[in-house]
């Protein structure tokens, strides 16, 4: 906003009106100047990126990859702060307690931003308490099993569960997560029941699945791909309508005889507290898009199972979040998510 030309134009008005207009213009300038100045100098110190899962999982790996390159674009290092627990709600709450100055951002997922407030009203926030900056990417879930489980695909798993009631346990990376919702929806659609075992993130879940402490799990494709390729996990099916563009050898559960029309997808994106200034939001979004445009970032995210270009602008990202909020409020009604 150019204040000087505006003041020149106001000199043609009668003096009383001119004085009032001058005061208004000056007030606008005083309000705008600090915001513009803050955006111009941002960032002047290191930034903290809160990740709602333990170190070692695919979400953490993707967040760290983006943090490195986003920090290079912004000219300041970005430190990853892993804060696990309560389906990501603890990380979300920590972010919301921070100042809306762009120095604390959340590498948020559908779990902590959308599902945690729906499944746990005591979380004390909704997605409206955040400023969406932009999506990093999205990925589907995959049902995996320890190779010792006598099931080669989703049909064999469902048949085995029915023949062995109460014996099969399925791990999830937290109560109320989208993985939890997906496991419960699959139980409901298949008209059976297994024992659901919640963990605090993908890393400890994967460790127990590798060790045989649990039989199967619902995890993000990125966290499972390395183990599937090494033969340490057996894929029972991607929880998607289509196969992944990179990992085309992994079949979907919809390719079996019994399950049809089943699909879940999880996104990862950046958020700040709700009162972040529009100027800082635009600067962060622009920097994120620059980081995601780097070939090494796109390739790295692709290898982790993330599809980019999901919602580049804050407006597009907010629309995606609003759709998921409505979708999962409907999907979770009647599901047992207390175990």
From TrEMBL:
InterPro entries: BUG, Bug_dom1
This protein's UniProt keywords: Receptor, Signal
Pfam families: TctC
Domain of life: Bacteria
CDD domains per UniProt: PBP2_Bug_TTT
Signal peptide from the UniProt entry: 1-38
Family: Belongs to the UPF0065 (bug) family.
Protein name: Tripartite-type tricarboxylate transporter receptor subunit TctC
Species of the source: Ottowia thiooxydans
């Amino acid at each position: 906003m150019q204040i000087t030309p505006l003041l020149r134009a106001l000199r043609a008005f009668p003096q009383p009106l001119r004085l009032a207009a001058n005061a208004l213009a000056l007030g606008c300038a005083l309000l705008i100047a600090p915001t513009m100045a803050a955006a111009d100098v941002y960032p002047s110190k290191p930034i903290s990126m809160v990740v709602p899962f333990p170190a070692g999982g695919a979400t953490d790996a993707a967040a760290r990859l983006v943090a490195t390159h986003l920090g290079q674009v912004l000219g300041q290092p970005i430190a990853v702060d892993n804060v696990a627990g309560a389906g990501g709600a603890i990380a979300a709450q920590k972010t919301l307690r921070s100042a809306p100055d762009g120095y604390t951002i959340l590498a948020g997922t559908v779990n902590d931003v959308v599902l945690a407030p729906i499944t746990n009203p005591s979380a004390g926030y909704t997605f409206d308490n955040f400023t969406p900056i932009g999506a990093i990417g999205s990925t589907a879930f995959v049902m995996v099993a320890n190779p010792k489980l006598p099931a080669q695909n989703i049909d064999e798993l469902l048949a085995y569960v029915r023949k062995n009631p109460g014996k099969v346990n399925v791990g999830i990376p937290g109560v109320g997560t989208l993985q939890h919702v997906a496991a419960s929806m699959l139980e409901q659609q298949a008209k059976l029941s297994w024992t659901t075992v919640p963990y605090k993130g993908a890393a400890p879940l994967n460790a127990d699945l590798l060790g045989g402490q649990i039989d199967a799990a619902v995890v993000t494709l990125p966290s499972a791909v390395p183990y599937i390729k090494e033969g340490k996990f057996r894929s029972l099916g991607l929880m998607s309508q289509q196969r992944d563009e990179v990992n085309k050898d992994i079949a979907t559960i919809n390719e079996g005889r019994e399950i049809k029309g089943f699909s879940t997808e999880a996104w990862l994106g950046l958020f700040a507290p709700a009162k972040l200034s529009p100027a800082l939001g635009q600067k962060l979004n622009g920097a994120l898009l620059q980081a995601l445009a780097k070939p090494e970032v796109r390739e790295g995210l692709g290898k982790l199972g993330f599809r980019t270009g999901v919602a580049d602008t804050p407006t597009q990202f907010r629309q995606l979040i609003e759709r998921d909020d409505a979708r999962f409020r409907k999907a979770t009604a009647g599901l047992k998510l207390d175990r």
